[in-house]
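Data deposition worksheet. Section B asks for the primary sequence of the deposited chain exactly as it was used as input, without tags or linkers unless they were present during the calculation. Section C holds the resulting structure in token form. Section D is free text for depositor observations; keep each observation to a single sentence. Incomplete worksheets are returned to the depositor.
Section A, Depositor: J.P.
Section B:
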Amino acid sequence: MNYLPLPQQFDQNEWFIIISIILSYTFIYFLPHRFPTSISILVMFFSVFVARVVDELLAGPKVDFYDVIDSGKYELFDIISYMMYAPFAYLLVYFFDKFQLRGLLLFFYIVAFSLFGWGFEWISEHFHLFTYNEWKFSYSLAVYLIIQPITLLFFILISNSHKKCINK
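Section C:
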């Protein structure tokens, strides 16, 4: 059986991943409960799935715009790093739902949350989570501006489906 290899050297990027995961999951754990657990899990899995697909499209061997973690080869912490995306998606939909954002406020919210994600990527880059080959950091903002509304649409769809199932 083939296992994902451990990092050749356990350094700052692995520690950054571990600390980010612990802090972000702890933060969302202590937030007041807003959604059914099934919706929370689906939103979090959706964000991991989207991150994985985007990385495969942009950082895969055929394109290789950037590398995740230490090299272009898959290792255990590449998979673990995807867990960092879930709390951000949860917070995105949490505050969207809490404040019932619509219209221009929703637009500014998406821009602000995209800037927040972009800022976190900037910090991540300093801990060598990403090594840009053909990719420029500025491109990432456009990706966030596309993915945030898609995540919100997914949340709206599953929330509406859940309400229909409950009201039957």
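Section D:
The first strand starts at residue 66 and ends at 68.
The mean pLDDT is 95.
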